[in-house]
Amino acid sequence: MGQSAIPVEVVDLEQEYDGRRVLSVPALAIKEGEVFVLIGPNGSGKSTFLRIINLLEKPSRGKVFLFGFEPRTRSEILQARRKMSMVFQEPLLFSASVYNNIAYGLRIRREKEGRIRQKVEDLMEKLEISHLAKRLATGLSGGEAQRVSLARALAVEPEIFLLDEPLASLDAPTRESLRSDLGGLLRELRITSIYVTHDRTEAIVLADRIAVMNEGQILQEGTADEVFNKPRDELVASFVGVETILRGIVVSRMEQLAEIEIWGKRIEAVSSCQVGDEVLVFLRPEDVTVTLPGDGRIRSSARNVFPGRIEKITHLGYLVKLHLDCGFSLRALITRVSATELGLTEGMGIMASFKATAVHVVRRG
């Protein structure tokens, strides 16, 4: 394998099960050292893609190149797989000590014990499990076991690191802690990584580049900002957490500012769309500010200000989601402290505001 080549590249990749196409990726390349996160709903084809990359599954059509080389024979596949490590949702540890679990792959490769000890102890320190070294792995908590699994996968110094929803089965506090530590480790090691998840927060925290997959197809790829704040269509917008999706028509424009009519109301947005264009308007709930009528704290930079009424309040831990009727449906996300300070209740009148730059506009059709 030529190490100067692209670490992972697929061409015309397709997979079918019983005549049903479950994966179709015409072209995709993963850059050296990047963390590429593949997000999408359950059953969208993410794990199938990962198994094909790991050469655990042969595609119905297309090619997989690893560092510019397409492994075909059994010998080539085994050689290629030795350069990869994969972590699954369930840790799958041996009934042995934490230390011996992490050291397993190194011993298979016949590394010297001194080198093994150095690698294992370094990874245990990085993943904060040094105190568990002598513990039996089968008696660990879910978070501890997954830390051991990650350490074992990284110990062999893979050139390609594959992760299939490694945090999905953990409770929220454990998931948050491990997500932070894993992000730091991936940034430090700069291993070419493909990370599969359906969790939007994981994608934002971990990714250098994100792709959204649904029904086996990549709908959009780019940086977190591009995918989450500039979704290509309604389906991507819904999945990445855009809760206000409105249909309208551009009725006027001045320089880069377009005025869009929606249900008799007019929204201003920075957009290249032209007068007469039928458009979709996307707005994230965290970009909407809610104040009380007559309150002077409405942001002067917000070009869009609408009176409205709270239809529903949903409590989400330290956050509160507001379902608003402003002549069109609008969602806002504020802190619980802010909601309490404002004394918000269902049926109450409010003012909702948002910047023209917060609105993302896409032509329909």
From TrEMBL:
UniProt xrefs under InterPro entries: AAA+_ATPase, ABC_SmlMolc_Importer, ABC_transporter-like_ATP-bd, ABC_transporter-like_CS, ABC_transpr_FbpC, Mo/tungstate-bd_C_term_dom, Mop_domain, P-loop_NTPase
One Pfam family here: ABC_tran
Keyword annotations of the record: ATP-binding, Cell membrane, Ion transport, Iron, Iron transport, Membrane, Molybdenum, Nucleotide-binding, Transport
Protein name from the UniProt record: Sulfate/thiosulfate transport system ATP-binding protein
Lineage, broadest ranks: Bacteria, Bacillati, Actinomycetota, Actinomycetota incertae sedis, Candidatus Hakubellales
Mop domain span: 299-363
Domain ABC transporter positions: 8-240
Spans through the membrane: none
One MF annotation (Gene Ontology) recorded for this entry: ABC-type ferric iron transporter activity
Biological processes annotated in GO: molybdate ion transport
SMART domains, per the entry: AAA
GO cellular component: a single term: membrane
